[in-house]
């Protein structure tokens, strides 16, 4: 089981994942930080949008416009059924080139399924899609390493760079770290980054 199996896994597990996905909105503190002092409508790019619940749905309820990207068509079908207001694009985030810029970039519980090298290669893609002052929200591990988790009945790969490397990659691509909350209890033990785009 490795990062090359991620899309196949989520294609197999899409219906169950969408049905069982925690929709309590424990992510709300992180989402709210993205939009603090910013009025809707914002342009939101949700990378690995899955079923659209609850994250894309939260932005839609605010009046924002969400573009959801997922490499698993079965996930996009779940999103279409559950949050039809989301504009859906079937694509692999690792090769994304929408030629559009967004106010909010999300890679929440999706980015950490990529290999370490693929994660490094995502930062120019983030920058290419970031509007001035855009916010980038993504999850990682608390430290460098790899792990195998579980989605439904399938094993699933996770990886993380070291926090210092994420800081260096963000800075090199025009992002300023707002905060990093490793294994944060308020966020159900997730390690979450929020950064602001200061580049061109």
From TrEMBL:
GO terms for molecular function: methyltransferase activity. Pfam families: Methyltransf_25. InterPro entries: Methyltransf_25 (IPR041698). It comes from the Bacteria. Transmembrane segments: none annotated. Residues 44-131 form the Methyltransferase domain. GO terms for biological process: methylation. This is Methyltransferase domain-containing protein. It comes from Gymnodinialimonas ceratoperidinii.
